[in-house]
Amino acid sequence: MALEVLDRPAWQARQAAHESRVDQWLTPHLRRRDRGLKHPVHDFLFTYYSLRPGQLRRWQPGAGVVLLDADGLGPGYRRQSGGLILDVGQLVARRGDSLRWILDLLRATAARPPHLGCFGMHEWAMVYEQSQAEVRHNAWPLRLSPQDTAAVVRERGVRCSHFDAFRFFTPSARPLNVLQPTRERQRDLEQPGCLHAGMDLYKMAYKVGPLASGELVADCFALARDIRALDMRASPYELAGLGFPPVRVETAEGRAEYVAAQRGFAARAAPIRSALIALVGEALDGVGLPGTV
Question: What highest taxon heads this organism's lineage (predicted)?
Answer without folding.
Answer: Bacteria
